[in-house]
Design goal:
Layout lengths: L2 H31 L17 H39 L7
Length: about 100
């Protein structure tokens, strides 16, 4: 397998792992970030919302989180592949 193929494979696997990880991490963060605060203690919070707008907002934030996770995973895969390929290359030969 060539060096470029190995780097690309590491980046693709990293992107996939990053997107899957973001799929589990982003929804709880969105829930926490968008939770309304209680004005009166012991009373349930009453809210009114526009459902189509809420769905668009939530899905766009989830997709953005997955994209960010994929990019971070691809960069981590790139770093891992470069480190692995440098270890296995043995360095440059010295010629006189």
């Amino acid at each position: 397998m060539s060096r470029a193929t190995a780097i690309l494979l590491y980046m693709l696997v990293g992107a996939l792992v990053g997107a899957v990880t973001a799929s589990f991490v982003v929804p709880p963060v969105l829930t926490w970030y968008n939770e309304p605060g209680a004005i009166n203690a012991g009373k349930q919070v009453e809210t009114l919302c526009n459902i189509p707008e809420l769905i668009r907002y939530t899905s766009s934030r989830l997709l953005r989180g997955q994209l960010i996770g994929a990019v971070i995973g691809a960069l981590m895969g790139l770093v891992g592949a470069l480190i692995r390929s440098r270890r296995h290359s043995g360095g440059l030969p010295i010629s006189a």
